[in-house]
């Protein structure tokens, strides 16, 4: 569980709007929805993630006496606002798509129903939590599709944009189907298997590479994965072959070697031949080094003899698509639907639901986006998760969300597995939603 964060971890305009609402006594119920306006270029789907941390935040958000005193000392705010935040607790309702659900543009993955000051004040942190994990999980899902059957390990902590990002990215990757993470805290907090080998510095600290291999093997006899590209990759592979019999006599088995530079496919083929010729057919090859789904797909096409990959920087930063065009927008206030009509950023008004259809083989066949009061055939994706500020069910185990993600990815149309833009998945906007938008535009509701 993340440590409690200050209620001040938000944007200033949340407080300036809050003061306006309070001064005008605008405290009627509002409906906000979080959605992605448009899929990033080359992305064919997104994977919902971050709901668990969002609910933790809503359960715990508050302002300490020191924080309220700081707001008062700033001189910006009225006594009414200060009293309000001193007693602030989230008291609203939340409906959401389960973590691990595949979704598409304009489909809300979370809806908040609460008095408008409450719903507004939680906006920034909700976007912060949902956006980041969804971004990374969606990238990780593409890596999983590019490397079926491979051991995939998140190696990105050291390049993550801060400690929380590194921890939550490990969670998002595991949810999407990765086998584990280098992040030790992620194992303690989320039960994610942790993996680790050695750095080049361990080899460089020794005057003899073969001695470095042996020292590491004897220090870690149950996890002998040797990094062999510090100097000459193929020469190091021969040293591993020479070392193996002595270790085996002491009951130590070499699990794998790791490649981290150069032409990974070519090195893997040469190293595989050396290991096999030396009787080490059971020693695997693991690769790392600026990898992403495109490079892993290329290596798969070459049939490179690599059994697993450590994927870091490009994954945790989602380097080819480093953000989602997402929003948390007002859809209803005081019982009346609301709609933003800004050029290029128009929204669909009202409380919405997404219904998913499947074909005879259980493959996703199309979604319908409509108003909540317009039931449709299919599976409704938004489900109640919180009422009156309290969860309706215990936290869903990460393993269950991971299983759902695997099931969802497995039910995608084959064309959406592509790493480049495919024919878009069909999402139909129901007539009822079109009619509501027209009525709002004509101020009939």
From TrEMBL:
- Provide the Nicotinate phosphoribosyltransferase N-terminal domain boundaries: 8-130
| GO cellular component term, pick one | cytosol
Q: Where is the Nicotinate phosphoribosyltransferase C-terminal domain?
A: 379-436
What EC number(s) is this enzyme filed under?
6.3.4.21
**InterPro entries the record matches:** Aldolase_TIM, N/Namide_PRibTrfase, NAPRTase_C, NAPRTase_N, Nic_PRibTrfase-Fam, Nic_PRibTrfase_pncB, Nicotinate_pribotase-like_C
Q: Name the pathway it acts in.
A: Cofactor biosynthesis; NAD(+) biosynthesis; nicotinate D-ribonucleotide from nicotinate: step 1/1
The Nicotinate/nicotinamide phosphoribosyltransferase domain covers which part of the protein? 152-331
Cross-referenced SUPFAM superfamilies, in alphabetical order? Answer: Nicotinate/Quinolinate PRTase C-terminal domain-like (SSF51690), Nicotinate/Quinolinate PRTase N-terminal domain-like (SSF54675)
Post-translational modification summary for this protein:
Transiently phosphorylated on a His residue during the reaction cycle. Phosphorylation strongly increases the affinity for substrates and increases the rate of nicotinate D-ribonucleotide production. Dephosphorylation regenerates the low-affinity form of the enzyme, leading to product release.
Q: Which GO terms describe its biological process?
A: NAD+ biosynthetic process via the salvage pathway
Source domain of life:
Bacteria
Keyword terms, alphabetized: Glycosyltransferase, Ligase, Phosphoprotein, Pyridine nucleotide biosynthesis, Transferase
Task: Drop me one GO molecular function for this one.
Answer: nicotinate phosphoribosyltransferase activity
Task: Give a Pfam family name.
Answer: NAPRTase
Reaction(s) catalysed by this chain's protein: 5-phospho-alpha-D-ribose 1-diphosphate + nicotinate + ATP + H2O = nicotinate beta-D-ribonucleotide + ADP + phosphate + diphosphate
Question: What task does this protein carry out?
Answer: Catalyzes the first step in the biosynthesis of NAD from nicotinic acid, the ATP-dependent synthesis of beta-nicotinate D-ribonucleotide from nicotinate and 5-phospho-D-ribose 1-phosphate.
Tell me which family the UniProt entry assigns to this protein.
Answer: Belongs to the NAPRTase family.
**What name is this protein filed under?**
Nicotinate phosphoribosyltransferase
Q: Which organism is it from?
A: Sulfurimicrobium lacus
